[in-house]
């Protein structure tokens, strides 16, 4: 066991300096009495790498398609923006891991608000609701399902994930039905992705969600 000559105390573990006075410790180190916790980020490195490769591939494909069909405008830039937003959300969730759905809802709200204001003050071309909102919403939904699988979240949190997923799809559906959308494909994809994600979480984690609903609603 290491010893501090200044404080006259013994220190467990393999510290180099005294935790009280920061003086150099002397003596033989001994194993720490606390277990070493595994790094959760390293455990999920493979899944993150797969998602990164998929994101890069999607961006490259969209850029190539946009180059071939340039008459439809620079829509690939919105795809790139959606992917960047998705990775910002994922990075925040991985390192913060606190109230993830709330953070994502605020992020979609802020990105949507800024894009609508930008679109409005530049002459209103409609790109904010035709492209930005559905693409960002789809990115957030993918991250939500990815994180629910990655962290094995509790049933109570899963209910919040499901509500956020449903909210994303409902917003796009309302915009479609009210005629605000002039390019329906991205919004239709968003509604479809929302439905698929909801179905996936209900199928694979549905039992836990039902148990949590019974507990909360006293059914």
From TrEMBL:
Please tell me whether the keyword Repeat is annotated for this protein: no
Any idea which UniProt keywords this protein has? Membrane, Transmembrane, Transmembrane helix
List the InterPro entries.
DUF6320 (IPR046283)
Show the stretches that span the lipid bilayer. 46-69, 75-95, 104-125, 131-151, 158-177, 183-204
Pfam family name, one = DUF6320
Superkingdom, natural source: Bacteria
- What protein name is recorded for this chain? Zinc ribbon domain-containing protein
Record organism: Caproicibacterium lactatifermentans
């Amino acid at each position: 066991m290491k010893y501090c000559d200044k404080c006259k105390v013994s220190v467990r573990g393999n510290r180099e300096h005294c935790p009280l006075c920061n003086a150099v410790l002397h003596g033989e180190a001994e194993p720490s009495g606390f277990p070493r916790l595994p790094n959760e980020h390293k455990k999920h490195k493979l899944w993150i790498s797969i998602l990164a490769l998929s994101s890069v591939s999607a961006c490259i494909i969209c850029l190539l398609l946009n180059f071939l069909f340039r008459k439809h405008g620079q829509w690939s830039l919105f795809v790139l923006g959606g992917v960047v937003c998705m990775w910002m959300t994922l990075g925040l969730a991985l390192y913060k891991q606190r109230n993830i759905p709330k953070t994502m809802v605020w992020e979609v709200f802020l990105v949507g608000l800024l894009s609508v204001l930008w679109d409005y003050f530049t002459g209103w071309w409609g790109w904010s609701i035709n492209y930005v909102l559905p693409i960002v919403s789809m990115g957030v939904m993918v991250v939500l399902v990815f994180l629910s699988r990655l962290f094995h979240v509790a049933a109570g949190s899963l209910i919040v994930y499901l509500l956020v997923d449903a909210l994303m799809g409902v917003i796009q559906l309302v915009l479609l039905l009210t005629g605000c959308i002039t390019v329906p494909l991205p919004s239709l994809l968003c509604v479809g992705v929302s439905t698929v994600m909801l179905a996936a979480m209900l199928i694979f984690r549905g039992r836990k969600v039902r148990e949590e609903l019974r507990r909360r609603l006293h059914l």
